[in-house]
Recover the amino acids of this structure.
């Protein structure tokens, strides 16, 4: 009986200490409830408060942007030719970022400048012999602001899917500092692009893996928290067959498994 009472007392003490820690964090750092939904880290546009989409002609959009053509983003009801899929379009990181910047200005009426940081960017494509670009890209941007006596991050996201002729956007959400204070992407200093990371991954087991499954796989690249992560997913098992981490400054493989 004494042992049971002792264990019960220990549990109560731990619970009280945990509550006190939460209160101290809230008071000292303005973090609010540590289980606050604002601590959630969004990955896709659909996790934002407000979302929308437009159609694009993937065959002409880059040329239209370069020539400053006004009709780049079309209403969602616009019928786009299936030639996008037939051509198996694939773009580089730079091309996706160019489209993201134009869409950002089109939606929010402000430029994607130094006031906005990249929190995360990702790219994916089907496995194939000629890997010269990506079929889909997502960018999550954030901006530090002071709101309600707390530091928060205003966040926005852009997704681009040329094969479907779609661009999507999400915004209207703010997040607390613990989530968005980490993992910023500094494009000015990062030397290894998504295209470079893919080449490095192919030379470090990726190509061998692809051939072993007859290209029945998909590729996903993520730049977050200081490294490129390249994942080869098996189409049949839907599991990760190869996971490679690459230093975005030197191109050195950090780990592979």
């Amino acid at each position: 009986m004494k042992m049971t009472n002792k264990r019960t007392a220990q549990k109560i003490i731990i619970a009280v200490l945990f509550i006190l820690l939460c209160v101290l964090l809230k008071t000292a750092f303005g973090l609010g409830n540590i289980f606050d939904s604002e601590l959630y880290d969004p990955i896709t546009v659909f996790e934002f408060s407000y979302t929308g989409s437009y159609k694009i002609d993937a065959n002409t959009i880059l040329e239209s942007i370069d020539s400053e053509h006004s009709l780049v983003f079309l209403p969602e009801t616009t019928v786009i030719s299936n030639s996008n899929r037939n051509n198996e379009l694939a773009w580089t990181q730079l091309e996706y970022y160019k489209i993201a910047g134009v869409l950002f200005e089109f939606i929010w009426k402000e430029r994607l400048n130094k006031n906005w940081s990249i929190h995360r960017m990702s790219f994916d494509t089907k496995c194939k012999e000629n890997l010269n670009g990506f079929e889909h890209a997502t960018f999550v941007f954030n901006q530090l602001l002071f709101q309600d006596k707390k530091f928060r991050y205003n966040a926005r996201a852009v997704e681009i899917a040329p094969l479907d002729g779609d661009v999507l956007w999400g915004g209207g959400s703010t997040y607390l500092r613990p989530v968005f204070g980490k993992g910023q992407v500094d494009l000015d200093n990062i030397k290894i692009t998504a295209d470079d990371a893919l080449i490095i991954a192919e030379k470090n087991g990726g190509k061998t893996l692809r051939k072993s499954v007859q290209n029945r796989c998909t590729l996903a690249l993520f730049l977050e928290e200081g490294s490129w992560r390249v994942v080869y997913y098996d189409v049949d098992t839907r599991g990760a067959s190869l996971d490679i981490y690459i230093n975005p400054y030197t191109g050195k493989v950090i780990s592979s498994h």
Q: What stands out?
A: Strands lie at 50-55, 117-126, 136-147, 150-161, 166-176, 217-224, 227-234, 240-246, 253-256. The helical segments are 2-29, 61-66, 83-87, 93-108, 177-180, 194-212. Residues 2-29 form the longest helix (28 residues).
